[in-house]
Amino acid sequence: MPSAPSTLSILPAPIPTWFGVGGHAERLAHAASADDVRQCLELDPRARILGDGANLLVDDDGVPELVIATAHMARVEFHAPDTCLAQAGADLPKLIHECVRRGLAGLEGLTGIPATVGGAVIMNAGGAFGQIADAVHRVHALSRDGRPRTIDRADIAFDYRHSGLAPLVVTAVEFRLSPGDPEALRAKVKDVMAYKKTSQPLAARSAGCCFKNPTLPHDLRDGAGDIGQAGRRVSAGLLIDRAGLKGLRLRGAEVSTRHANFLTPLPGGAARDVIDLMAEVERRVFDTFGVRLEREVVVWSRHA
């Protein structure tokens, strides 16, 4: 994929996230190409990568590391008959829409997941209708010392909300798709969105599900009945709900009353309120069930 002309500049700036709260970057660069990313890594090998901000919470006092925003790295190319090459900053919902329009199947199950392509691949974004790993063919990335890497799908350690790619900076992703009927694909998109609208507080300021669904370390039941057997992955939202935490408030943050795995800031709330509420939910679920929740939301802080 040809490189765009460099527009690299580095300035203090807010870090936009879907939570709508949180701190600034002392240094933020808008990269338009892999070469821009390489220049940034030369300045700060520990630079943080900002995609859509949909799965991110930044502590109120911000971060000192250079932040590389990838929104300008958004070009998408389609190669006949079934390959798509997308830069890391390409918008995933827009990519899904274009694939459906072209009659290309493989990504439509990710409808409703706000993310850039790079961020989605790093965390192996997915849900009840599939995961992005199922469509990945090859990933292009840079190591922290600026060396280019190309990793085939077979060499990527994809797992539940995991790719093993986090030490790298993803610059582009190749997808292998399959022919599909556009009308049938549009119907699938509508079905996925209808399911999410009935079960999730989509209008709330949040990052979607806050915690990964845990694997139970032991058989688990409570007064309402069986929750699951040891080794089974169960809903984090179910555990939070069964622990009686729906609607729990801590200062300016709340556990959603609609879906217990959604944590949202209240008017006037701060990022630290959400971070502390995460920790309180983790503590209470462990005290109730002996299950440790792992965060799906990424938290940036100068303290950790």
Strand order of the largest sheet: 6-7-13-11-12
Strand content: 25-35%
Radius of gyration in whole Å, from Cα?
20 Å
Q: Uncertain segments of ≥5 residues (pLDDT<50)?
A: none
Structural class computed from helices and strand pairing: alpha+beta
Count of individual beta strands: 20
Terminus-to-terminus distance:
36 Å
- Oligomeric state of the chains present here: single chain
**Shape category:** globular
Question: How do the SSEs run, as a string of H and E?
Answer: EEHEEEEEHEHEEEEEEHEEHEEEHE
**With helices defined by DSSP (H or I, 4 residues minimum), what is the helix count?**
6
Provide the residue-averaged pLDDT. Answer: 94
Q: How is the main sheet built?
A: 5 strands, antiparallel
Describe it for me?
The protein has 304 residues and is of the alpha+beta class. The chain has helices at 34-43, 92-102, 117-122, 182-199, 236-242, 271-289, and strands spanning 10-14, 24-30, 48-50, 56-58, 63-69, 76-79, 83-87, 104-105, 126-127, 130-131, 136-142, 148-152, 169-176, 178-179, 220-222, 225-228, 249-250, 253-255, 263-265, 298-300. The strands form seven sheets. A five-stranded antiparallel sheet has the order 6-7-13-11-12. A four-stranded mixed sheet has the order 1-2-5-3, with helices on one face. Strands 17-18-19 form a three-stranded antiparallel sheet, with helices on one face. The radius of gyration is 20 Å and the shape is globular. The model has no long low-confidence stretch (mean pLDDT 94).
